Amino acid sequence: MPSSSTTGDSSSMPNTERLYYSDPYLCEFEARVIARRDIDGRSAVVLDRTAFYPTGGGQPNDTGTLSGVSVLDVIADGGLIWHVLEGHMNADEVDGRVAWGRRFDHMQQHTGQHILSQAFIQTCGAETVAFHLGATSSTIDVNRVDLGVDDLGRAESLANEIIDRALAVSATFYSQADLARIPLRKPPKVTETIRIVQVAGFDWSACGGTHVANTAHIGLIKVVGSERRGQETRVTFLCGGRARADYARLQALAQGLVARFTTAQDDLLDAVDRRSAEVQALRKELSDLEGQWVASTAAALWATAESRGGYRVVALARDYPFERVKRVAQALRGFPAAVVLLGVRGERPQLICARADDVNLNAGDLLRTAVTAGGGRGGGRPDWAQGGVPTNEGLDKALAAAVAALPAA
Question: How far is CA 304 from each of CA 97, 234, 326, rounded to the nearest angstrom?
Fold first, then answer.
């Protein structure tokens, strides 16, 4: 930990009493400062007791205030807990206030993860190998890659059944000797006294996080996505207030679509399918019309092209989209003796040099001559090349240089 101690010898300090272990619903407390130091340029203190949860076990830290000074980060350092502050605090006796909204959200997500992980074991035989509690959603990685929609649905359904049963959630410290009689979901990573969080009769997990006291306090678990990650599947889920907020977002989205499609919500999919079919038909019609326009434009340009050195030279610049000009140039290559010099005006002017197959001319060399005159660069094959110049004035110079480089009439 980057720091510089100013008060207290951490090796001789008593461990910080972690109040959230005995009461995760506790958000206001009094405590005494027993150490101070700077961490990454910010003032930090250790208290003799705290309700602030430090980052760990996949769960982010709490935030809040100590005597009115904002707590930005909470860091576990052995048996001590450092509170990183927004400003300096001189008081030795402090009033702590944990931000309840963030704390309860984390309690819902973390307890929901325990339940969902056990649900995946019971319904799919899929064990959780990783957990992440994010700012907007949470994920578990399970050790199966063949989970389908029905598998996700069964696990979600069982998890919500456990919520509806309003099972008690408790946490107890056990010694290694006592663990043999506890049906842990997976072996603990620590070997000393271990804290076991139990969802009554359903799940037993070694965990140091904060949890609700009753599964009903989670309210709802919703699986919102899954993706394969190597030999595992990452499942994204929302619990409690996050799930309700997501439902409100989806409802607002659905109502917006109802208004736009002027249809009932239950008919939205049919309305979207109809609109999609209409759009596809219009795109095909537009593509056909574009093809006809390109063919007729190319024919007209070739018919009126200047004859020069046995070639028919089409040299001009337009404000059309580049892809449209490119299609015209491609069509012109199908006409005999065609030399094509087509520029596209705009913020990023471009130039295409191309030739018909019966023309003995290197389009790449011609383009380089042109764009060099216009202050740009580019290149390509003997039959097709393209490049850019910085300005429309440069494009005019490039076109003029290209025409001048052709054999005289």
Answer: 82, 63, 19
Residue 242: name the closest of 108, 57, 55, 56 by CA.
108
Q: Taking a C-beta distance cutoff of 8 angstroms, is the pair 200, 167 a contact?
A: yes
pTM: 0.76
Which pair of structure tokens corresponds to residue 230? 């190597």
Q: What is d(CA 143, CA 120) in angstroms, rounded to the nearest whole number?
A: 10
The residue with tokens 């494009």 is 395
String of b and e for 15-47 (b: at least 16 CB within 10 Å)? ebbbbbeeebeebebebebbbbbebeeebbbbb
Summarised one tens digit per residue, pLDDT across range 309-365 is 889 999 999 999 999 999 999 999 999 999 999 999 999 999 999 999 999 999 999
104-248: what fold?
A: Threonyl-tRNA Synthetase; Chain A, domain 2 (3.30.980)
10-residue stretch averages of pLDDT, the chain, 409 residues long: 49 86 97 96 97 94 97 96 95 97 98 98 97 96 96 98 98 88 85 90 95 98 97 98 97 95 94 94 95 96 91 94 96 95 95 95 94 94 95 95 86
- Phi, psi dihedral angles at 357 (to 5 degrees): -65, -25
As separate numbers, helices (DSSP H) first and strands (DSSP E) second, the chain gives 8, 22
User: In which residue are the tokens 């008593």 written?
Assistant: 14
Show me where the domains of the chain are located. Answer: 3-98, 104-248, 293-405
CATH numeric code, 293-405:
3.10.310.40
- Give the chain's largest Cα–Cα span: 101
For the domain made up of 3-98, the CATH class stated in words is mainly beta
DSSP state for residue 59 in the 8-state scheme: B
- Cβ neighbours, 10 Å, residue 196: 18
CA dihedral sign of residues 109, 110, 114, 115: negative
**H or E stretch including 297?**
helix 268-303
What's the helix, strand, coil split of the chain in %, to 5? 40, 30, 30
**What is the rounded CA–CA span in Å between residue 199 and residue 172?**
12
Task: Report DSSP state, residue 187.
Answer: -
Q: Are 363 and 399 in contact (CB under 8 A)?
A: no
Nearest to 192 by CA among 180, 202, 177: 177
| Encoded tokens for 111 | 């307890």
- HSE of 187, CA atoms in CB hemisphere, 13 A: 4
Using the Cα atoms of residue 148, residue 150, residue 153 and residue 154 in order, give the sign of their dihedral: negative
CA–CA gap between residue 245 and residue 407 (Å, rounded): 71
DSSP 230: T
